[in-house]
Amino acid sequence: MRGYGLFYFVTEAFNGLRANSLVNLLAVGTISMAMLIVSFFLIVFFNVQSTVSRLGERLEMSVYLKDGLTQHEKDFLFSRIKAELGVKKATYLSKADALSLFKKELQGQEALIQGLGENPLPDSFELTIDRRFAESEQLEALSKKIAGYPGVEDVSYGKQNAEIVSALYKLLIYGGTALAILLGVSVVFIISNSVRLALYSRGQEIELMQWIGATRGFIQGPFLIEGTLLAMLGTALAVGILAAFYYAIPTEVVRFLSRPNGLDFLPLSVVAYMIVAGSILGFIGGLVSVSKFLD
Amino acid sequence: MIQLYRVTKYYDGVPALRNVSFTIDKGEFVFITGPSGAGKTTLLKIIFCAEHADEGQIILQGMNTFRLKSSSIPYLRRNIGFVFQDYKLLPHKTVFDNIALALKVVGTPYGEIGRRVYQILKNVGMQDKRHLTPPKLSGGEQQKVAVARALVNEPQILLADEPTGNLDPQSAQEVFRLFRDINMKGTTVLVATHDWETVKKMQRRIITMERGVVTDEGIPSYLKSSRLHSRKPEEDVSGTVPREGEP
Fold first, then answer.
1. How far apart are CA A227 and CA A222, in angstroms?
2. Which residues contact B4 (CB under 8 A, 6 or more apart)?
3. pLDDT digits (tens, 9 = 90+) for A45-85
4. Which of A3, A210, A212 is opposite residue B108, by nearest beta carbon?
5. Has residue B230 got a pLDDT over 70?
6. Could you tell me which CATH class the domain A60-157 is placed in?
7. Are A13 and A5 in contact (CB under 8 A)?
8. Domain ranges, ordered by start, for chain B
């Protein structure tokens, strides 16, 4: 295409957008509504993900030891447990330390532990579990393995917590993917329809261009850019609306509504990815309708 | 330049063209005449690759159009100008932009477009109306713009389908004068018309069609000695016998 490249296509695309301004405004509005749902979901996704990560980081396991173990046996057991895959950190908690910790936690209610007599708490190893082992099945396997070591009385961990974390991860990944596909298809559909409207309104021009020797690419180019621009504008508008809402609501209210961790807005990189992804969907939408029209 | 051999075309099983054969040499000016429904428009569309023939062969500028890929058709069309009965001008674009579009489509550099559009408009006497939109022009003026658009890329062939069908006699005469001038410069011209009066006046080769069949083909006797149209009727591949002494 000697002399005609992206500049010509972009100019023609803007002319087309201007010529069908009402239809295109409606398209941008509809796309932004769809993308608003996407962005809202992404905010929820990223915040839940960070909460889940924090929960994952807090995954701990307590290994209670039998009474009467020698120091040597305890050291051996400690090094063995510490070497286990998935154990990020391990600390020894003697029964005396455990009791003083317990007392500290029950400060103001000391009456409850008076009369206990001899310290009933066992020696223990407090383990921090690697985030990658946050799956409830893996934790279960690890706890069973450690419980089988000689000298170990019992193993306990936040089983319920771990199961919630694991379920939330799955929900986020599968639900998020399904929703993203659904909304992506909707955006392609919306854009292909608005580009189709533009095509019909310029049908005479397109037919004429074919008669005077225009190649398919020459005819397609402006419409593909039109679709891309529509989606880009729609996505930017959606993010803008959401940001306006986010920053308009007082921080205290946001914190109150999203206790305990607060609610973060989308990272800038995610906004950039969204605009790029929206543009790609717009391009696909344009391509779908132009191909149908020209065939 | 244009060769048709036993071209047949059906629409829903009904033949629109039957065994049409003829040859048009480079630089010829040929009329296709016949009543409405004779197949004139279908014939032009087939030559222009806007329709596919069901049978037969078409050789255009040495290329068999049956073997052309659809992606090659735009490039073939760039060598063919087409003038329509209803002008097919874009109503929201100015005269200038309507013609410039034909140049843009073939990738003419921006810097050349203004000069070439002005020049072709000057040739058809429409340079002063370049900023107007087609609805502000008369039918004759619109057809002149359409002719200018068809010629701006200097095609080797000009096809016209009932170009004067919507025009008054004076405008029709002006359009045919343009065709004659273009032909004098070497462009092969093929005009489908049922304007028999103009055909007679122009004194060029005539292909007569009726119900999709070439019924008559030849050159009026008074033109046979002309050097411009020296092609002999017996060379025709159509197999039809030209009638002597009749235009």
1. 9
2. B20, B21, B22, B23, B43, B47, B56, B57, B58
3. 787 777 766 766 667 888 999 888 888 888 998 998 888 88
4. A3
5. no
6. alpha beta
7. no
8. 1-79+156-247, 89-154
Structure-block tokens of residue B87: 């002008």
pLDDT digits (tens, 9 = 90+) for A241-250: 988 988 887 7
Shortest CB distance from A3 goes to which of B76, B90, B110? B110
In chain B, what residues touch A19 (CB-CB under 8 Å)? 92
Chain-chain contact of A211 with B50 (C-beta, under 8 angstroms): yes
- Residue A101 in contact with residue A142, Cβ under 8 Å? no
Q: Are A258 and A246 in contact (CB under 8 A)?
A: no
| Residues of B within an 8 Å Cβ radius of A | 48, 50, 71, 74-78, 82, 88, 90, 92, 101-102, 104-110, 149, 153
- Spatial separation of the C-alpha atoms in residues A105 and A155, rounded to whole Å: 21
Residue B90 structure tokens: 């874009």
What class does CATH assign to B1-79+156-247? alpha beta
Cβ atoms of A28 and A233 within 8 Å: the answer is yes
**Nearest Cβ partner of A212 from B71, B77, B92?**
B77
Find, in chain A, the residue whose alpha carbon is nearest to that of B51: A211
Sort strands B188-192 and B29-33 into parallel, antiparallel or unpaired.
parallel
Q: Do A211 and B105 touch (CB under 8 A)?
A: no
State the span(s) of chain A assigned CATH 3.30.70.3040.
60-157
* Assigned token pair, A125: 């190893």
Can you give the pTM of this predicted structure? 0.66
Place of tokens 């596919």: B52
* CA-based nearest residue to B97, from B85, B89, B107, B108: B89
